[in-house]
């Protein structure tokens, strides 16, 4: 017990020591020592870029830095199926209009849904010969259709975004509307591009450069690669730097992306540490996983912080007390589990979205706010269950386990008293449940107070029990029914 209290204290103090005094700007700093001055900065927008809120935060920092260091241009290299609508709308209506550096979108090869919105917000658009852009219609985070009232509200808001971008960038508003809304038919370029009512517009490279009302329908040209884009913009002689997260930036990106895995590993380690006497490696794994989880989400500017880390640690202590000190009370363990899961969920919520959450306006909905955190938490719980099942099934037969979990500790932790090659003397031994078994509790067997697990269902305190099996990690019992 003292070992676990010390471990939780280490988790709280050491895990967040580097994050307590830092401000996000100083942590992120510059993504490299290389200056952007006089250079072309390339931002890669790939398959999953637009579904990670941290990517938007990183791009904002790069755009600000490009302005401050007087870069020549910023190119969004787009090959994406889309992503988060409101984060993208914020980028094109609030961030890009303030950027003084020229912004260029290269559709290489697809800018679908939110990807097309990024292109809309840039000063120039170039298409790959086999590129496509459009299909910007709004869908829910799960990909399902949005109910009519909410759709009407959202489309009204995004229609205003279309007007803003059309005015700022000199775009054809009808082209963007045809890509985003399917409530009317459109005809462009003398009837060469037709959109029927109920359909959404998606343009190929050749279609995007067709002339309409004296100017290109959407794109400024067709280019095979980035070199051709640079040549079109008279930037061929400029140095090019690809901006990618490094250091703390990369750390935050990967933690945000793999939070579900960290949850699964952390919960698995915590549970197995409590079930494995004299074997501290699982506790170390749990502490490392949860420290990385909270610190990484904090650096990524999610709601993770000291307060939530402390909430999680207190919940973990309550669960430890339930398992090791007051088994069978249920209340302490239940409260502890709720505190732990709540801390994990809230820690993954994006701070910007949280601050912009408004139930009256309904633009950032509760679903969009906590949808991905709930999915990640669910995946983490399912993953931890699977890992625990596999470890408890195979761990006792692993030689490494037997060498680390020495016999003296094993005897003290489980009550097994056996010699080399002998069977446990507990099998078939009767005893009395000292606490309620829900299913874990304590029972007196052979005059010793041992931690046991009910084979099936609840067993009340005072009931007679018999040991049905043990595997070095658990003592399984069942109630003796009176005739």
From TrEMBL:
Topology in the lipid bilayer is annotated as: Multi-pass membrane protein
Specify the NfeD1b N-terminal domain's residue ranges.
51-241
- Gene3D superfamilies hit by this protein: 2-enoyl-CoA Hydratase, Chain A, domain 1, Nucleic acid-binding proteins
What would you give as a GO molecular function for this chain, any one?
A: peptidase activity
Give UniProt keywords alphabetically. Answer: Hydrolase, Membrane, Protease, Signal, Transmembrane, Transmembrane helix
Main subcellular localisation:
membrane
Question: What is the top-level taxon of the source organism?
Answer: Bacteria
Q: Which SUPFAM superfamilies match?
A: ClpP/crotonase
Q: The NfeD integral membrane domain covers which part of the protein?
A: 259-375
Where does the record place the NfeD-like C-terminal domain? 426-478
Give me the Gene Ontology terms describing cellular component. Answer: plasma membrane
Q: Where does the chain cross the membrane? A: 251-272, 279-300, 306-325, 330-349, 369-392
| Any single biological process term in GO | proteolysis
Question: Which compartment or compartments is the protein found in?
Answer: Membrane
Matches recorded under CDD domains = Clp_protease_NfeD_like
Where is the signal peptide, in residue numbers? 1-19
UniProt-recorded name of the protein: Membrane-bound serine protease (ClpP class)
- Give the source species: Rubritalea squalenifaciens DSM 18772
């Amino acid at each position: 017990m003292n070992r676990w209290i010390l471990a939780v204290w280490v988790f709280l103090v050491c895990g967040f020591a580097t994050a307590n005094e830092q401000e996000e700007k100083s942590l992120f700093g510059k993504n490299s020592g290389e200056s952007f001055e006089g250079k072309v900065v390339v931002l890669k927008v790939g398959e999953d870029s637009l579904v990670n809120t941290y990517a938007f935060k990183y791009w904002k920092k790069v755009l600000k830095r490009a302005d401050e260091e007087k870069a020549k241009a910023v190119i969004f290299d787009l090959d994406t199926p889309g992503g988060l609508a409101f984060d993208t709308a914020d980028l094109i209506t609030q961030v890009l209009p303030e950027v003084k550096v020229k912004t260029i979108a290269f559709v290489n090869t697809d800018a679908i849904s939110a990807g097309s919105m990024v292109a809309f917000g840039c000063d120039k658009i170039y298409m790959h010969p086999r590129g496509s852009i459009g299909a910007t219609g709004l869908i829910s985070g799960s990909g399902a259709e949005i109910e009519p009232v909410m759709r009407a509200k959202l489309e009204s808001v995004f229609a205003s975004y279309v007007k803003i971008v059309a005015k700022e960038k000199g775009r054809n508003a009808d082209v963007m509307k045809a890509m985003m809304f399917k409530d009317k038919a459109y005809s462009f370029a003398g009837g060469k591009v037709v959109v029927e009512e109920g359909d959404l517009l998606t343009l190929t490279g050749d279609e995007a450069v067709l002339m309409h009302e004296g100017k290109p329908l959407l794109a400024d040209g067709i280019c095979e690669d980035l070199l051709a884009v640079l040549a079109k913009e008279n930037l061929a002689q400029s140095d090019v730097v690809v901006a990618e997260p490094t250091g703390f930036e990369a750390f935050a990106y990967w933690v945000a992306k793999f939070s579900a895995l960290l949850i699964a590993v952390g919960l698995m380690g915590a549970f197995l540490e409590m079930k494995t006497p004299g074997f501290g490696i699982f506790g170390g794994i749990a502490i490392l996983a949860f420290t990385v989880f909270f610190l990484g989400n904090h650096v990524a500017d999610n709601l993770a912080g000291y307060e939530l880390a402390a909430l999680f640690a207190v919940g973990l202590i309550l669960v430890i007390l339930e398992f090791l000190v007051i088994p069978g009370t249920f209340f302490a363990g239940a409260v502890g589990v709720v505190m732990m899961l709540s801390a994990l969920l809230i820690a993954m919520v994006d701070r910007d979205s949280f601050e912009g959450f408004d139930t009256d306006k309904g633009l950032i909905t509760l679903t969009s706010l906590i949808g991905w955190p709930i999915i990640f938490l669910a995946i983490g719980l399912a993953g931890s269950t699977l890992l625990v099942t596999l470890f408890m099934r195979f761990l006792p037969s692993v030689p490494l386990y037997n060498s680390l979990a020495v016999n003296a500790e094993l005897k003290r932790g489980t009550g097994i008293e056996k010699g080399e090659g002998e069977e446990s003397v507990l099998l078939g031994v009767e005893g009395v449940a000292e606490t309620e078994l829900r299913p874990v509790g304590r029972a007196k067997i052979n005059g010793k107070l041992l931690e046991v697990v009910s084979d099936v269902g609840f067993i009340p305190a005072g009931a007679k029990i018999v040991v049905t099996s043990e595997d070095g990690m658990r003592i399984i019992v069942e109630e003796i029914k009176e005739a």
